[in-house]
Design brief:
- This protein has a single domain, classed as 2-Layer Sandwich (Metal Transport, Frataxin, Chain A), CATH 3.30.920.
- It is built from 3 helices and 3 strands; from the N terminus they run ααβββα.
- It has helices at residues 3-12, 23-32, 67-79, and strands spanning 36-39, 44-49, 52-57.
- A 3-stranded antiparallel beta sheet has the order 1-2-3, covered by helices on one side.
- It is globular.
């Protein structure tokens, strides 16, 4: 992971939860972690890291994830054993 990915991982776990996290940065982080990302119906994206699967909604029209999605991402990464 490079510095940008570490910053994104840190931003995912900050308190209070950020509402300005960009999806493309999260997707780059997940790729750096070795995630398998596959498209689902509509704007859904399935992510698999360390044999854990989660489905996220790709935000639109804004590129930013909402706070609830960031909380879900935090829980998912923690369950996969990934913390900053």
């Amino acid at each position: 992971m490079n510095t940008r990915h570490r910053r994104t991982l840190s931003a995912v776990f900050t308190r209070p939860v950020s509402g300005s996290l960009k999806w493309r940065d999260v997707e780059a982080l997940l790729n750096a972690l070795g995630a398998t990302i596959s498209e689902r119906a509509g704007s859904r994206v399935a992510v698999m890291v360390n044999d854990r699967v989660a489905v996220f909604h790709r935000p639109h029209p804004s590129p930013n994830m909402d706070r609830g999605a960031v909380r879900d991402l935090q829980r998912y990464l923690e369950s996969a054993g990934i913390t900053p």
